[in-house]
Write a structure and sequence with these properties.
Serine_prot/Carboxylest_S33, alpha/beta, 41% helix, 619 residues
Length: 619
């Protein structure tokens, strides 16, 4: 169970992490709170539309991994751009995948990988490859949320002239007047770009919830079952609040604080990201000094080495001889530490940049020699957790970097999107229209209220940069500070919903334990909370390092049985280790110990999906 001392500690930590300033409380927490929008009726013409199914392009990959899998078919279906006013705007398309249960179906199961904006077309089938009982027990539905993946894309439109006019800072971590000017200018540009089309206003969680309910009705399922990760917990919580009578078995894994605002969730990230780095990643690197050359044998030495490499990167950028940035390295480490097995990749990122500052290239970019030298600095035992080809692809130093699979290992952020667009704008002639693509922060802006005072965010980033020296500056000024549309918000209380399973590890870098616990306490009558002690991987159920969580999740998904009370689970060791190293985190450590599982290797299809979400976590 989770003891009262644990909850007290967790709530104390909540009070210690960044909270909204009192001066902006009205802007971020409207006095009367959000009001649930009315549930729209589904016009019959959408339910009557023909569905032109064809075998999914990824079906062959599924069957290679699990030959007994049913055929997964794909289609695109038409939905209103705005469910509240179906005739007011052009329709949009949602890409879906579907397979029939090979046994007696328990109903329709769908999933979401996170984001916002994570493409989920392949996720349901990928999870079933890892857990084949999903194929036998459920009709499986995958979908790309509106605006993303193969659904009608959100477009963020600007011009080369506006891109060229943006100021530039050598390092967002340096909280200078120039950095402030850059963050405000970039936020204004992104808000204007993503609001430039009428679709921008309707790329939101509430509209996606309506899409999910439509897909349930279209496929003639009585209820919806759901496995959601990260932002997928936000989506699942909102669906359950809007359609409690349609909720089947919902597993919400690596939870956002989905009863509060998007900004409060963003404001947890520097704290939770630093905790994962400082309590697990850096000590793990230090413990493997005999397998990793030149990063140090104590956490203090590893941290000092990281800071030295980062400082050298910034010097080269300031000298005008390099485009390899220190804040980009921070972003790579932040996203790589989402997965335990990716500790090796995070280590290689530090080594690659160490090689680069020792021997900068004339091109000002990381080159093949830097990657190959870094690879040679880790032992064969660690190399077995990744591949040299993948690391080369991560840095774009081989032709393979252009493949779809290689795109999953690169880190993408709004800053890198702007930087790439600026580089292209410099080469273009005249003023041209530029599509920055689907910026997922649009969903956040549409979901909940944000302060419209950029000075508030600048003060917060300045304060956080001092408090959390790894990535405290990460948020800066969000484009939502300049978003022109009111939020399509709701008050999530889960009134009338059956009980759902919340899974949360204590050291998650992207969805802080304290925020998840706060949401559980706000919805205690409708949620059961399972914490994982000494664990920090983002995403737990299905391929989890915790056998305890797998067992609890399986009992619920396949039998409908939840634990009688909140629980704490143990976990298995980090890569290349034989024992779990304790962390003094918010969970009290009195875990329910089940037999320890081996370090699990997730199937490549699922891993690619998870890597893609992690790589775009800053966008």
């Amino acid at each position: 169970m989770i003891r009262s001392r644990t909850i007290a500690l967790a709530l104390a930590a909540v009070l210690a992490v960044p909270q909204l300033a009192a001066g902006t409380a009205t802007a971020v927490h409207p006095t009367r709170g959000p009001v649930d929008p009315p549930v729209p009726a589904i016009p019959q013409k959408y339910l009557d539309q023909p569905i032109n199914w064809s075998v999914c392009s990824f079906d062959a990959a599924v069957k290679r991994l699990y030959p007994q899998a049913p055929t997964t078919n794909c289609a695109t279906v038409t939905v209103p751009m705005d469910w509240a006013n179906p005739d007011a705007h052009p329709d949009v398309k949602v890409a879906i995948s579907h397979s029939k249960a090979t046994g007696t179906s328990k109903g329709l199961m769908t999933t979401n990988p996170g984001g916002p904006g994570g493409a989920g077309l392949t996720l349901s089938a990928s999870l079933a490859v890892e857990k084949p009982q999903l194929f036998s027990d459920f009709d499986l539905l995958g979908f790309d949320p509106r605006g993303f993946g193969q659904s009608t894309p959100l477009q963020c439109i600007t011009t080369t002239e506006k891109l060229n006019a943006l100021p530039v800072t050598p390092d967002h971590k340096e909280r200078t007047r120039l950095t402030h000017e850059v963050e405000v200018a970039e936020a204004k540009l992104l808000a204007e770009a993503c609001a430039a089309t009428e679709f921008g206003r309707f790329a939101s969680s509430q509209q996606t919830v309506y899409d999910m309910e439509f897909l349930r009705a279209l496929l003639k399922a009585r209820q919806l079952n759901f496995i959601g990760y990260s932002y997928g917990t936000w989506l699942g919580g909102w669906y359950a609040d809007a359609y409690p009578e349609r909720v089947g078995r919902f597993v919400l894994d690596s939870n956002m604080d989905w009863t509060h605002t998007q900004w409060e969730n963003m404001n947890f990230d520097p704290f939770s990201g630093q905790r994962r780095r400082d309590t697990q990643l850096i000590p793990w690197i230090a413990r493997h000094a005999d397998m990793i050359q030149g990063l140090g044998s104590t956490p203090a030495q590893v941290t000092a080495k990281y800071n030295q490499v980062r400082a050298d990167l910034v010097k080269l950028v300031k000298a005008g001889t390099s485009s390899v940035r220190g804040d980009n390295l921070d972003g790579m480490i932040y996203s790589a530490q989402y997965g335990n097995v990716r500790f090796i990749r995070a280590t290689l990122d530090v080594l690659v940049h160490d090689e680069y500052v020792k021997d900068p290239s004339a091109s000002g970019e990381v080159e093949l020699r830097h990657v190959d030298r870094a690879w040679a600095r880790i032992s064969p035992e660690l190399q077995a957790f990744d591949t040299l080809a993948t690391i080369r692809a991560r840095y774009g130093v081989t032709p393979a970097a252009s493949s779809a699979a290689a795109a999953a290992v690169r880190v993408d952020s709004t800053r890198s999107v702007i930087a790439d667009a600026r580089a292209a704008a410099v080469r273009s002639k005249g003023d041209a229209t530029v599509n920055l693509g689907a910026i997922s922060t649009t969903v956040r802006c549409n979901d909940t209220a944000f302060s419209h005072d950029p000075r508030y965010y600048l003060r917060e980033a300045d304060r956080m940069a001092k408090k959390y020296d790894f990535f405290g500056y990460m948020n800066g000024v969000p484009m939502c500070a300049f978003w022109p549309y009111p939020p399509q918000d709701r008050r999530v209380d889960l009134k009338g919903s059956p009980r759902m399973l919340m899974v949360q590890d204590e050291l998650d870098p992207a969805t802080a334990y304290e925020g998840a616990l706060r949401t559980h306490e706000a919805t205690a009558k409708a949620t059961r909370f399972v914490a994982i002690d000494d664990e920090g991987q983002h995403g737990q159920y299905v391929g989890s390092p915790s056998a305890c969580v797998e067992e609890i999740g399986d009992r619920f998904v396949f039998s409908g049985e939840l634990p009688g009370k909140d629980q704490v689970c143990g976990t298995s060791p980090l890569p290349a280790e034989l024992s779990v190293f304790p962390v003094d985190g918010p969970v009290d450590g009195n875990a329910v110990h089940l037999p320890r599982s081996k370090q699990q290797r997730v199937n490549p299809m699922l891993q690619e999906t998870l890597d893609t979400i992690a790589g775009k976590s800053l966008r």
